Amino acid sequence: MGPMIDEVAEKDKKKEKKKVENQEHRAEARKIEVAHQDKEEGQHPLKMKAEGVCAWFGTKQALYDVNMPIYEKEVTAIIGPSGCGKSTLIRCFNRMHETVPGSRFAGDIFLEKESIFDPRMDPVVVRRRVGMVFQKPTPFPTLSIYDNVAIGLRLNGTRDKKVLDEVVEKSLRKAALWEEVKDSLQKAGGALSGGQQQRLCIARALAIELEVLLMDEPCSALDPISTTKIEELIHELRQNYTIIIVTHNMQQAARVSQKTVFLLNGKLIEYDATEKMFTNPENKLTEDYITGRFG
User: Fold this and answer.
1) How far apart are CA 105 and CA 37, in angstroms?
2) Confidence class of residue 5 from pLDDT cuts 50, 70 and 90?
3) Could you say which of 16, 18, 161, 229 is the most buried, measured as most Cβ atoms within 10 Å of its Cβ?
């Protein structure tokens, strides 16, 4: 019996050793995986940067000394209660704020290393590189689906039908709309459903030389199914574009973004990784807003 017991004990020892080695191997593999992810996240270069941004409408100041980075191929969500300056801030990123009569701006915003307010920087070029999708879908209602997507190219001088066809299809595919409209491209854009119209507006923005996509509450007027499609689209677009989104929906911000900005009364209260902000915010005001104590 003695030798048999020793043999069983030896086998058990080998099994235990193998189990420990497997656990150590998995742990080491996980460390490598996490390190690789951290390295990838750390590789995202700075795409835009706001420095000391202040904005006014007449004598009323809407933004106070906002400083924040925007990283390439990430989604940055801007949250905060109504009237806190979210839409004003996002419109500053492509100089739409200055189109409002009586508005003023101070500070600076950089697109990569260039100031978008440099006198040599054409605002039209800025808005071509930093496109925008508004709260309410804004297709040209009487233009066809095809012409809604192609209009930016045509205004920039593109006339080649083959080029237009390729860009229209590519943009509609990127906006996850091609399969739904490919057989009715001459249908009026205004005849589409609300969710389809919003994706058409996204396709229109993508058709030009877009680098950054601004989205000002793009789902606020949509039903839950259309909202889900837009959120899925945001995840896909992040592979190639930098996205800034304004949202009132805390769950949406948590689902789609990697970084989050909390604004209150025109001031940036907190900026952090989304997961950290929603689980362990630094500022008590942020915690109170996220947990629904105000707003």
Assistant:
1) 38
2) low
3) 229
